[in-house]
Specification:
The complex is a heterodimer of chains A (112) and B (112). Chain A has 112 residues and is mainly beta. Chain A is built from no helices and eleven strands. In chain A, the strands form two sheets. In chain A, strands 2, 4, 5, 6, 9, 10 and 11 form a seven-stranded mixed sheet that branches. A four-stranded antiparallel sheet of chain A has the order 1-3-8-7, with no helix packed on it. In chain A, strand 7 (65-68) and strand 8 form a beta hairpin. Chain B contains no helices and eleven strands. Chain B has strands at 5-7, 10-14, 19-24, 30-38, 45-50, 56-59, 62-67, 72-77, 86-94, 97-102, 106-111. Classes of the chains: A mainly beta (112), B mainly beta (112).
């Protein structure tokens, strides 16, 4: 297992289109997190899964955002009707039983 | 709302010099303090996870200290090298929520 994998690395989309990102965590990690990082800010928490259950959602996650982790393995984050303000780096992290979080390289979204 | 502050925001250091920067975080409901190094186009790399007041950790030329009573952590880099150029993020976990609350980072540039 080479770590947390995210696809695509970059996505350019037109305003109003839907986009979906994928995260493949470290296989033995049962916890999976999504973060968003905008220019000049640190990563901000979006949502968290333990196995397939979505246990926590930030108020940043508007109703245009939905995340799933159907079999407790990979996760998808979908943004519907994208807006320019959605342009950001979307990071995924996974965590096992210890304190450490392992991050993927992120998906950079640009909405034009 | 949990507030994690990092200073300075950016730092230029001459190669060979030593440097340090600060992370301040809530002193109540503390669980762990994380330091990450994030280079452009790569995933954030975990440097340290610290949980106990007075913890000191070292990894090569980089070390960190933790004071949970007053809510701060220092990261030290000894004998800076060009490859140390990166954004250094600290993140707090605690406050009854899972997931991490990040600071905005310190952007470090090592000048040859």
């Amino acid at each position: 297992d080479t770590g947390v994998s995210q696809n695509p690395r970059h996505k350019i989309t037109k305003r109003g289109q839907n986009v979906t990102f994928r995260c493949d965590p470290i296989s033995e990690h049962n916890r999976l997190y999504w973060y968003r990082q905008t220019l000049g800010q640190g990563p901000e928490f979006l949502t968290y899964f333990q196995n397939e259950a979505q246990l926590e959602k930030s108020r940043l996650l508007s109703d245009r955002f939905s995340a799933e982790r159907p079999k407790g393995s990979f996760s998808t984050l979908e943004i519907q009707r994208t807006e320019q303000g959605d342009s950001a780096m979307y990071l995924c992290a996974s965590r096992g039983l210890n304190y450490g979080y392992t991050f993927g390289s992120g998906t950079r979204l640009t909405v034009v | 709302i949990l507030n994690v502050e990092q200073s300075p925001q950016s730092l230029h250091v001459q190669e060979g010099d030593s440097t340090n920067f600060t992370c301040s975080f809530p002193s109540s409901n503390f669980y762990a303090l994380h330091w990450y190094r994030w280079e452009t186009a790569k995933s954030p790399e975990a440097l340290f996870v610290m949980t106990l007041n007075g913890d000191e950790k070292k990894k090569g030329r980089i070390s960190a200290t933790l004071n949970t009573k007053e809510g701060y952590s220092y990261l030290y880099i000894k004998g800076s090298q060009p490859e140390d150029s990166a954004t250094y993020l600290c993140a707090f976990s605690g406050g009854g929520a899972d997931g991490l609350t990040f600071g905005k980072g310190t952007h470090l540039i090592i000048q040859p």
